[in-house]
Specification:
By secondary structure, this protein is an all-alpha fold. Helix content is about 65%, strand content about 0%. It has 3 helices and no strands. The longest helix is centred in the middle third of the chain and has 26 residues. The protein is elongated. It starts with 7 loop residues before the first helix and ends in a 9-residue tail after the last helix.
């Protein structure tokens, strides 16, 4: 469990956003944190690629994008 303190204005914005999304504050914050972590993973992968680490094949990326376009959500290939 993690407990955080937010400034009043930010806390009010979080509560409003959670209610608007139909989630509890805990559910909303968990989703926000998961999204932020996903972005951080993507940044690390981009940094790795830019430093010369080989990327995935075009075919693998295309297959993933076709599946995504067909509504099949899967983790981005690495």
């Amino acid at each position: 469990m993690l407990t955080i303190s937010l400034p009043e204005e930010l806390e009010a914005a979080v509560v409003t956003a959670a209610h608007r999304s139909g989630q509890s504050v805990d559910e909303y914050m968990a989703a926000v944190c998961a999204d932020a972590f996903s972005l951080e993973v993507d940044r690390a992968r981009l940094d790795s690629f830019l430093s010369g680490t080989p990327a995935i094949t075009h075919e693998r990326a295309r297959d993933w994008l076709v599946e995504l376009a067909n509504g099949v959500r899967a983790e981005c290939p690495r």
